[in-house]
Amino acid sequence: MTTQKKQGGNIAAIIVMIILFGMISFVTGLGGPFANALKNEFQAPNWQSQLGTFCNFLAYLFMGIPSGMLLKKIGYKKTALAAILVGIVGVGIQYTSGQVSSFGVYLIGAFVAGFSMCMLNAVVNPMLNTMGGGGNKGNTLIQVGGSFNSLNATIVPVLVGYLAGANATIKSASPALFIAIGLFAIAFLVLWLVKIPEPALEAETGEKTGMAIPFRHFWLGAIGIFIYVGVEVGVPNFLIRMCTENDIFTLGGTIAGSIAGTYWFLMLIGRLIGASIGMKVSSKVQLTFCASLALLFVLCAIFTSPETKTMMPVFQSDISFVMQEVPVSILLLVLCGLCTSIMWGGIFNLAVEGLGKYTKMASGIFMMLVVGGGVLPLIQGAVATTDTYSSFINSYWVIFAGLAYLLFYALIGSKNVNKNITVV
pTM to 2 decimals? Predict the structure, then answer.
């Protein structure tokens, strides 16, 4: 009876962690479609429209290490509860910005919400791994959580596009913020009632490694994480901008949101495929193949005429499902979602190989470098200086350069050349 009760408790805890995993992508995903709202409401140039995303990811730089310290001090459950409360405050501030029409208030809200996302990330990954029993079973649970994460990321741009349309403002898109607050409140209540196992904390060795991790392949991988998150976010963010406002075609807010949602849906498919072949195909091979294919997709998109059209599935504003004619370049960029899906896991696995006692510190540094998800889209926005198709598509050279680095890392940079270092 005790064993059955414990298993039931673990199942409930696992479900809560998966829900929290989905909340991370729901709130983070608001940055893409809300960039459109910032553009419309404040006549912001393209680079400024990405400041909400930038502030959200900037929080990781400040909160990565403190999140780990919180886990040690108050445990996983209390850290998650605190993260949810911070998330409610952050999204609430973003809602307030729509009522007072303030760009600055919106950015503050995005920054506060970013603290919450960082804290939740620090909780859900190790908790799912622990509750799965570690090893392959733990990784399987993380993949399930990641799939739910991708599912929510698929829904967000479609939802905001449907609620607010192409001429979105923060106020018109605010129902999405209410939904986020409601989901946070439900998650808080469920988490409060569910018993969460607290993994035993490792004893301190007294050795302070700081940032001095003496492995070249780790630091090159850390740069890879910074670039990867920027690539993952930048591709769909500018798809929305390009589809709703350029000098050649306009597809409308709902269709643009659905197109960006399709990118995240393909990430879901890619993660499921990656999980199914992970025991047979190495991280190096997966990363090499996906980076190469993504480079090909982006290069072809840049040089394909917007007049060349094809069909792809989208949702209309009445929620009906149709095949929509779009430029081939748009479809090629959407297909990048299949490639970016496995990159986080691949880079992480290659970068921590052989680190031993340095692995925990390496994970904290990786969490800090998620800030790349805000920096690269900002650079991409600076390249897209005008609301023209050529300007938007040329901004994808930033994505191309990032993917080229990831290919270099897979082929050359991931090799451990410091095997003589003691890691016990």
Answer: 0.78
